[in-house]
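Consortium newsletter contribution from the modelling node. Members have asked for a concrete example of what our holo predictions look like. Here is one, prepared for the FE2/S2 (inorganic) cluster complex that several groups have been discussing at recent meetings.
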Amino acid sequence: MPKVTFVNWDVSVEVQPGTTILEAAEKVEERGVKVGHSCGGVCACSTCHVYVREGLPTVEEPSEREEDILDKAFDVRPQSRLGCQVEVGNKDLVVEVSQESVKAWYDENPAARHEAEARGEDLRK
Ligand code: FES
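And here is the predicted structure:
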């Protein structure tokens, strides 16, 4: 099975082809992976913004809708994609989660933010 690696936390997970990057992240959330998803994964926000560092040619091109939403994201780069829209193909992906997305995850999980702040953790990852 293909593997998705989240470089911010050096965490990898094997998934079935067709699994989205957001779904892969949710499988390893207990290992620290944080991908925001304010709209619930329906391509209506940009809080799941990630950079596909390796494997981008192996996934489908973004839809017009995804490109429109990405236009509203912060720090957009050529490797930018929405984690809820990218389905893993037959090859491994290496993904960096954007700061925008990590911040959104903490906004969606205020208790986790308070605990992380109390432990003095770096909230950028
Ligand atoms: S979770 Fe909102 S666009 Fe992906």
